[in-house]
Amino acid sequence: MSDLAPPAISVWQDLERRARAVLESYNFREIRTPMLEKTGVFQRSLGNTTDVVQKEMYTFEDRGGRSLSLRPEGTAGVMRFIAGAGPDFADARLYYMGPMFRCERPQAGRKRQFHQVGVEALGTAHPAVDAEVIALQMHLLSAWGLSDCTLQVNSRGLASDRDAVAAGLRSALEPHVSTLCDDCRRRMDSNVLRVLDCKQEDCRRVVEGLPPMSDFMTEESRKYLRDVLDTLDRLEIPAVFNPRLVRGLDYYVQTVWEITSSALGAQDALSGGGRYEISLGSKSIEGVGFAMGIERIIMALEAEGKTGGDSGKELVWVVSLGEKALDDNFKLAQTLRQRGIRCDMDLRGRSMKAQMRAANKASASHAVIRGEEEMEKGTFLLKNMKDGSQEELEMPELIERFSRALSLAGGE
Ligand code: HAM
What we know:
By secondary structure, the chain is of the alpha+beta class. It has two domains: about 10-160 and about 215-305, BirA Bifunctional Protein, domain 2; about 315-410, Rossmann fold (3-Layer(aba) Sandwich). It is built from 14 helices and 16 strands. A hairpin with a 5-residue loop joins strand 3 and strand 4. Helix 1 (about 10-25) packs antiparallel against helix 5 (about 125-145) and helix 2 (about 40-45) packs across helix 4. The two termini are about 30 Å apart.
């Protein structure tokens, strides 16, 4: 688990700001659910036999003896909310950003506390909605400046196809059981789809020889997938059909997808998503969504050389010569701040040299210097910290100068 501190935090803030702008342009609204839920919320949504539930959750008993877990992903909590919300939320379009927790073996791109930006579009299934959510995701990636991404799409079939797909895969795998790893032999009975996801070399080779899952589905499921792929094609979104993509969570039905980046190493999944049907209590909830790992997005941006790590806003350092100027400059700093100008100063009355050193250390773009002489004239000395040039300005010019810089930095 990592602290997120300056200066790196500005990259996070920039990604979050751009994400909100894109998500809201598709009419998605933010939801913030608790980081802790009753363990059953995850068991029922993600599935009891999934790796996330079996091996990766931080689960503990609270003082009342209830089993609680830190959320390993965002969908289950949103579904718990939807199950209790009224009909106003039946077709809700929601997004979330925040920390998730999985007790996995840490490695590059895999953390125990990581962050996701995710969306859930509730409502009955339609291929155009799945394609729209994928389009939104591609839009987000390009708004963040990522280009080297591959979208892979598959279908798990309708919920009613589940038994036929499992039976088909089981009989296709039967002749190769002795080659499969211990985990996969167990998965043959408990959750055969997960064999397709195994990373072991021998299992992968067996999986490559299997017929595509769609062979075991109804024509209705196959047509749904074709419609999603055709819509993506019309939207000019390049997609690769990967008949072996299953995703690791049990709630998925029909469309599933993953986006990978060649800029990442072994953990190359930037994002995953799909359509789901989740039963909580007496309610069955349908929707489609995805989540992206922010740590991995930042790794990919770094690999593509696209993170500046700058907050984008200029910093003005107010420098005072003498005690009288100090009092007056405190007021000046407040005025600049009220106009949205990023501004700082030394309030302890230190020497001019110490103040200039502090300005340099803070990477100030400009220093506004004022002593008694400037106060009498009603002017300010503006020093450009990069090239050392100086000019004398009056208050309205000073404000105008930085307001302009601000509106340039603030624009998209
Ligand atoms: P997921 O594939 O488990 O899907 O996670 C989504 C993304 O979170 C991954 O592609 C990856 O970028 C990131 N991620 C997962 N685990 C870690 C980790 N330990 N360290 C760093 N990043 C990680 C879900 O979570 C689903 N809830 C997505 C979804 C929403 N499907 C429908 N709606």
